[in-house]
């Protein structure tokens, strides 16, 4: 009787790292960051080039677009060879963000450059990375040069939400393979000008808010500590609004990690998402995790 081959000893395939590529210097930087991140975890790298879904009858305009896409595909292959990685390059056609989202379904992360997103003619208004971070089903990393070239610290924004807990796990998983340190920061609002030591009641409120913030961070970190015992998570609670705090911290970080939506989603809709603010203003790569 024929028997099916035994695959019980085969290791499950690691999830892909998907990179959106348009041939720009920022896209090259994103690809290099993705390759460096994927290596220790043996994750395959897939580079996605998105071309316009133009009707063939458009004639020479379609020919120009085909040549542009082919140049980007060839550039991506050359860059992979330079980086010493046997990755794959996939060409997709259609609107930029939807195609990137479809390509990254089931991926470990989607990596994009911070600007220069000429991935297709007629791209959506605004940053491709911001649109992708809002809607992707996997973490989205936006790569930009770190202000501090010697930084080896991952900063994670915590607020007690499930999304921020996932952000911390993402940071710890990366730190486990890279050796980076992890700092979990919690921002909280100060009572006001009177809290500068002139009013005991306001000073006491500030102390209570700091203690509440520290307890919030400690509760989230406790769950990660058991799964990542080798990672020493430093907790910092600072009386600054979270968005500003994370941007300030990014000046001395190698990566900032935030949840896609905070604990108070309605407030974020009114005041602007912390993650979107950090994406716009951070001075190092930013990962948005959901």
Can you describe this structure?
α1 (25-41) links the parallel β1 (17-20) and β2. 43% of the residues lie in helices and 18% in strands. The protein has helices at 25-41, 60-82, 96-103, 128-135, 162-178, 200-227, 242-250, 265-271, 274-281; strands at residues 17-20, 45-51, 88-93, 109-113, 140-143, 153-157, 181-187, 233-238, 255-259, 286-289. α3 (96-103) packs across α4 and α7 runs parallel beside α9. It is an alpha/beta fold. The radius of gyration is 22 Å and the shape is elongated. Strands 3-2-1-4-5-10-9-6-7-8 form a ten-stranded mixed β-sheet, with helices on both faces.
Quick synopsis:
By secondary structure, the protein is an alpha/beta fold. 43% of the residues lie in helices and 18% in strands.
Question: What labels would you give this structure?
Answer:
290 residues, alpha/beta, Rossmann fold, 2 domains, ten-stranded mixed sheet, 9 helices, 10 strands, 43% helix, elongated
Provide the CATH topology of the largest domain: Rossmann fold
N- to C-terminal separation? Answer: 48 Å
List the uncertain runs.
119-126, 265-272
Judged by helices, strands and strand pairing, the structural class is alpha/beta
Number of DSSP strand runs: 10
- The portion of residues assigned to helices is 40-55%
State the CATH class of the largest domain: Alpha Beta
Main β-sheet, in a few words?
10 strands, mixed
Overall domain count: 2
Strand-residue fraction?
15-25%
Shape category: elongated
